[in-house]
Amino acid sequence: xxxxxxxxxxxxxxxxxxxxxxxxxxxxxxxxxxxxxxxxxxxxxxxxxxxxxxxxxxxxxxxxxxxxxxxxxxxxxxxxxxxxxx
Amino acid sequence: xxxxxxxxxxxxxxxxxxxxxxxxxxxxxxxxxxxxxxxxxxxxxxxxxxxxxxxxxxxxxxxxxxxxxxxxxxxxxxxxxxxxxxxxxxxxxxxxxxxxxxxxxxxxxxxxxxxxxxxxxxxxxxxxxxxxxxxxxxxxxxxxxxxxxxxxxxxxxxxxxxxxxxxxxxxxxxxxxxxxxxxxxxxxxxxxxxxxxxxxxxxxxxxxxxxxxxxxxxxxxxxxxxxxxxxxxxxxxxxxxxxxxxxxxxxxxxxxxxxxxxxxxxxxxxxxxxxxxxxxxxxxxxxxxxxxxxxxxxxxxxxxxxxxxxxxxxxxxxxxxxxxxxxxxxxxxxxxxxxxxxxxxxxxxxxxxxxxxxxxxxxxxxxxxxxxxxxxxxxxxxxxxxxxxxxxxxxxxxxxxxxxxxxxxxxxxxxxxxxxxxxxxxxxxxxxxxxxxxxxxxxxxxxxxxxxxx
Lengths: 86, 454
Description:
Chain A: Keywords: Cytoplasm, Exonuclease, Hydrolase, Nuclease. By secondary structure, chain A is an alpha+beta fold. Chain A has helices spanning 10-26, 31-52; strands at residues 58-65, 68-73.
């Protein structure tokens, strides 16, 4: 299935998935067609899930100190130093 | 305290200083009954008194003011441009200078507003707020940049909102001042940073709520232009829903609060996750349904096939035969039963018509009659016998001889019984019969009438 290439756009995948769900629910398909569509749908959900979860939670704090930008990874300490004062 | 005393001293007490300043200030005639023009900042009413600051926009200078027992009918708002009359006083205890206001006059909208309106109009004319320049906010950003103060409540709100909804996202926070003179420059630097050094998919620029003044950085021309120039879509998230700043107009999207900005960047991803699991469920149940339908069809065909198989035909015939057998035997047994019942009936009727029994009845009748005859005869005989006996008794009682025995006698003349004296005459022979014999006599006397004395 050419649509299932890795570079498929997330929104297109979701759209296609919706179509698949609808035609499966309409129930006017032969068993073979249904199985084919179902397999495609499962693969698409995997692709979409992978895209949505492709990135892990990460929080980086950037501050300009003495004219230089300092990046500090505070993923595990998000609220440690944030929003405390003011 | 003499001034010379103070001057000669090396160390002052705080009180010495404040009371000196108080005298200095209050003795100065120039500071009495002055008129002061400025913009009202943070007015607050406490009891009968009005407290506020008066600001000089041009030089960014401020002075605290207090208006005791002020006339509440005068409405003083934040940003109002006013003219006040009053005396400058020095509070020893606080160490501060205040204007003790005795009159206040509102002279229209603050210059701040006017300037802001002018800037807004200018930028609008230039087309900075045109919708045709608005970039689309990506629905599924994986990397988000935030330009705000790391010390503000806004960053916490945004992070909270994002990560309680959706975990798989990277957030880059560019920490900068969001109020004060440096704020516009720092905000612009942040936007620039994300456009060059650390490319993100969407930038949130904002801060939490505050006084109108505190939000001014987001009204600065510099920031507005920077947002307009950004290649990366910008969401403006300043203050509360009621606060409107120029960055809201120029941004590609306006969030009503920082929390709302957080929602904007992850809501689609969160929805997509939910949709995905929903789609999965629906596909599964649709497939199950399809399978069940097919299964049902196969089942029906299987059944039909079985129905029409030779074995089943034979079995069916055998069943038919069995059924007929049953019907037959049932019919026969019913017939038999019926005949039997009829026979019983006839037998009974025949038994009822048996001559022997009729004879028996006749004999019984005869015996009855015969017995009754005998009894009747016996009764009659007894009656007759009784009557006879009575008559006999009567006869015995009436026997004349028996009367004679009791002393009576019968007198006869010429074999005729005498019943009257006239039947005899003197000299006639008469016979007297007694019970045991007769006497023959002659009548010699007769007397009629009464009984004799004899």
